[in-house]
Specification:
Length: 336
């Protein structure tokens, strides 16, 4: 939940946003954000910015179209909406095949982060739909899925975006927390955005403009070979989901997930949970039907096991950001 003065705000699993009097528990207003019968729900607290209540939406497993809404804290009136899957005439619409944008996913199911100095909201965006079958969406980037979008909270206008995983076919939501840190970066004081992504990469961005500063694997991430000068990932051949199946690290659950990270100003380190494992990503046909899950997962011919000879997966805690202690299979990495 979130609170502003004596008003408490909470979202519900049937996609409503409710304001309560924090002193009495009496309802002040209720707004239906979207239709739960289509697969929408609200699973995280809204974000209060000045006199606005900004809320994301869940439903990435369904044939939904994600968005971020802002509501007047006093009345519940919707003030703006940012569609995370751009429609005709919007920037990024050409990154979708045909009408696939209408059911393109891009849920916003974890709460964003606000920078009062820059008056900017940073919101992470989930996977495209269907999750695994990329052919429906075309061999295109599918903006703004698996991205962070920087928004003006007064208008909902996009300032910049960065896409962590273009054309995702692995269910690698990028909704993991965004940590804002002001500190020295390679000899220069910068406003940074830190993000450990489900795709197995730890990112450092300049949060004033979205510039890519660094990307480093914190678990095995076989899908990426590096990044070009614009910060776009250079993907590895044979690691995209296919009907035949492709063995890829990290696993469907990702290198990390929704568990909250922490950053220490004393150590200069960021701390987060991790999972080092892989999956066989097999796509399949799935007919779109409103209100039903829309994943388009196939059945691997040899199950979901990795090829023989791969080292076993492990779970645990890892510290990462400026330096990282060597694990049993991962080399020591210095991120600074």
């Amino acid at each position: 939940m979130s609170i502003l003065g004596n008003r408490l705000f909470v979202g519900t699993l049937d996609a409503a946003l409710i304001a309560l009097d924090a002193r009495t528990g009496l309802p002040l207003w209720e707004t239906q954000v979207s239709d739960t019968l289509e697969g929408y729900s609200i699973t995280s607290p809204p974000l209060v910015v000045h006199d606005k209540v900004i809320v994301g939406i869940a439903g990435g497993e369904f044939a939904t179209r994600g968005f971020i809404d802002a509501y007047d804290a006093a009345t519940g009136k919707r003030l703006w909406r940012f569609d995370t899957i751009p429609g005709p005439g919007d920037f990024g619409h050409d990154t979708w095949k045909g009408d696939s944008w209408k059911t393109g996913g891009g849920a916003t199911w974890l709460t964003g982060t606000y920078d009062p100095d820059l008056n900017t909201v940073y919101w992470p965006v989930g996977n495209p739909a269907p999750q695994i079958d990329r052919s429906v969406r075309g061999d295109l980037d599918n903006l703004f899925s698996d991205s962070v979008v920087a928004l003006d909270p007064d208008t909902g206008r996009r300032k910049w975006h960065y896409q962590f995983t273009p054309n995702d076919g692995h269910d690698w939501d990028s909704v993991q927390d965004l940590v804002l840190v002001d500190r020295m970066w390679r000899g220069q004081n910068r406003k940074l955005l830190l993000h450990a992504d489900r795709n197995g990469i730890f990112y450092v961005l300049d949060r004033t403009n979205g510039k890519f500063l660094a990307g480093n694997p914190f678990v095995r991430a076989t899908w990426v070979k590096g990044w070009d000068e614009n910060g776009r990932p250079i993907t590895t051949e044979g690691t995209r989901s296919t009907p035949e199946g492709a063995a890829v690290y990290p696993a469907v659950g990702g290198g990390t997930n929704f568990q909250a990270p922490s950053y220490s100003v004393q150590t200069g380190w960021m701390y987060f949970t991790y999972h080092d494992g892989g999956s066989v990503y097999t796509s399949g046909d799935e007919r779109f039907e409103p209100g039903r899950q829309y994943n388009a997962r196939g059945v691997p011919r040899s199950g979901n096991q990795l090829p023989a000879g791969e080292p076993p997966a492990s779970d645990g805690m890892k510290t990462g950001f400026w330096s990282q202690k060597p694990g049993p299979r991962l080399p020591n990495r210095t991120f600074a």
